[in-house]
Amino acid sequence: MTHRFRSPILLAATVLLAGAMSFAEDGSAIYKSKCAMCHGSTGTPNPAMAQSMGIKPVTDPAIKALTADQIASTVKSGKGKMHPVAGLTDAQVKDVAAYFKTLK
After folding, report:
1. I need a surface site. Which of 71, 89, 98, 101 has the fewest CB within 10 A?
2. At the top level of CATH, which class does the domain 25-102 belong to?
3. Residues 60-73 pLDDT 10s
């Protein structure tokens, strides 16, 4: 009798897990959807955006020196002309900051 219930429970758990995973965004996807329009897909903004907004490329020594926590703080609170990025959980902010640190 327990065998009869095991399959539906296992199926339901699998479907729920797969659904949750499909909605999860990693740092790369979040960066592409929320950050790349200003910071560039590779962390190098286009020259006009860099000049008008004061955005430095990831290769700039000041940007390279930032920690992931400092980047996360900027994402959450904003800085200069950059407004805070709305609609992200703390985990997503951490993921996007970690991804930004990987850009060369």
Report:
1. 89
2. mainly alpha
3. 999 999 999 999 99
